Amino acid sequence: MKGSQSHEFETDVPASELWEVYGTLRVGELVPELLPHIFAKAELASGDGDVGTIWRLTFAPGIPGLETYTEKLTKVDNENYIKEAESIDGDIMKLGFLYYMVRCEIIGKGLTSSVIRSTIEYEIDDGHPELEAMVSTAILAAVAESLSGYIKMEKMAHSSS
């Protein structure tokens, strides 16, 4: 059984400024710093942020069923601000997902605002329909909101100094 879920977060940060974080290795540095209650750490296993880069994520204690997650970047589109990462190891795959992919798209809405669209596409074995209830964009929504807030705070700090 295949499925998908999406979340959109509208922000008053320009798409190009969001991509300076989302489209680089900086995203992996910031996520555990900004969301320590969700991510204990993000380790760059290999790569430079382009296709083929592998991240190992460790979730904070208390996230049911998830301790580790390893993803490989399969698409990095710097013109259209799209990044896709497929799960290649860790608890999501051990739970029984056959395929699990996260896509982040930064969509410009004029010069000063944008939408962060986060999508999860997945496939599960028909014998495990309970896995569908585990799919949630809540973590991606938290990432979008926190990164947007961080960029706005950095911008304010630089403009006042």
TrEMBL record:
Chief place where the protein resides: nucleus
InterPro entries xrefs: Bet_v_I/MLP (IPR000916), Plant_def-hormone_signal (IPR050279), START-like_dom_sf (IPR023393)
Segments forming domain Bet v I/Major latex protein: 5-136
Cellular compartments annotated: Nucleus
GO molecular function, one term: protein phosphatase inhibitor activity
One BP annotation, GO: abscisic acid-activated signaling pathway
Cellular component terms (Gene Ontology): cytoplasm; nucleus
Organism superkingdom: Eukaryota
Cited Pfam families: Bet_v_1
PANTHER family per UniProt: OS04G0593400 PROTEIN (PTHR31213:SF23), OS08G0374000 PROTEIN-RELATED (PTHR31213)
Family recorded in the similarity comment: Belongs to the BetVI family.
Record-given protein name: Bet v I/Major latex protein domain-containing protein
Organism: Lolium multiflorum (Italian ryegrass)
Higher taxonomy: Eukaryota, Viridiplantae, Streptophyta, Embryophyta, Tracheophyta
